[in-house]
Amino acid sequence: EAGVAQSPRYKIIEKRQSVAFWCNPISGHATLYWYQQILGQGPKLLIQFQNNGVVDDSQLPKDRFSAERLKGVDSTLKIQPAKLEDSAVYLCASSQGQGSNQPQHFGDGTRLSIL
Amino acid sequence: AQSVTQPDIHITVSEGASLELRCNYSYGATPYLFWYVQSPGQGLQLLLKYFSGDTLVQGIKGFEAEFKRSQSSFNLRKPSVHWSDAAEYFCAVGAAGGYQKVTFGTGTKLQVIP
């Protein structure tokens, strides 16, 4: 089966600019996650979708970050405006169900550098 | 809320030597436990998981982990390390009941020397 697809792989922008990331989960996976992984740290959950509804966005900085999964398949994560501290790898993952016992399948991530 | 600690930031082992990576969790009931591996420039890949039952679980690539409730630990082991095992390893914990997110540790970077 095809894995989780993410694009772009790399992005360099200046602070205060905007950026968007795209994720296509594994076919049939109802749950989609966006994580932020800062260098030297573990992934931190930003938002979790179940189909096209939001399950958890408690750690999403909503003043600058937004995410959507309109048709319950693909998802986009946007940052506007970007800050220096947003430099990180943004990982998308998917799982069949939403329980925390569900193994998550990760994409290769988008590495974002803010100048 | 659950939490997980990986006390070793960086570990170096010789190829062919045994490996043990430590993971301690905090959660009141039986947790769901995972080990993931991340190679440079890639996403995380699941090595193994524990939900219940036999406390020694086998995973891919010759890895195993043992759940010890008395020590709140879930250490990852491999009897003989290969150069291709060099990567970063993340322990993660989830919990049953309603919505519970998975929390990841800060990772242990493994270096393998010839």
The structural class of chain A is mainly beta
Total of helices of chain A: 0
Compute the average pLDDT of chain A. Answer: 94
Percent of sequence in beta strands of chain A: over 45%
Mean pLDDT of chain B: 93
Overall geometry of chain A: globular
User: Radius of gyration of chain B in whole Å, from Cα?
Assistant: 14 Å
Fraction of residues in H or I helices of chain B: under 10%
N-to-C CA distance of chain B: 41 Å
Brief account:
The complex is a heterodimer of chains A (115) and B (114). Chain A is mostly beta strands.
Helices and strands, with pairings:
The complex is a heterodimer of chains A (115) and B (114).
Chain A: E1 5-7, E2 10-13, E3 19-24, E4 31-37, E5 44-50, E6 53-56, E7 65-68, E8 75-79, E9 88-95, E10 105-106, E11 110-114
Parallel strand pairs in A: 2-11
Antiparallel strand pairs in A: 1-3, 3-8, 4-5, 4-9, 5-6, 7-8, 9-10, 9-11
Chain B: E1 3-5, E2 10-14, E3 19-21, E4 24-26, E5 32-38, E6 44-50, E7 56-58, E8 64-68, E9 73-78, E10 87-94, E11 103-104, E12 108-113
Parallel strand pairs in B: 2-12
Antiparallel strand pairs in B: 1-4, 3-9, 5-6, 5-10, 7-8, 8-9, 10-11, 10-12
Polypeptide structure, described:
Chain A has strands at residues 5-7, 10-13, 19-24, 31-37, 44-50, 53-56, 65-68, 75-79, 88-95, 105-106, 110-114. Chain A is mainly β and 115 residues long. Chain A starts with a strand and ends with a strand. With 114 residues, chain B is mainly beta. Chain B is 0% helix and 51% strand. Chain B has no helices and 12 strands. In chain B, strands 2, 5, 6, 10, 11 and 12 form a 6-stranded mixed sheet that branches. A 4-stranded antiparallel sheet of chain B has the order 3-9-8-7, with no helix packed on it. The N and C termini of chain B lie far apart (41 Å). Classes of the chains: A mainly beta (115), B mainly beta (114).
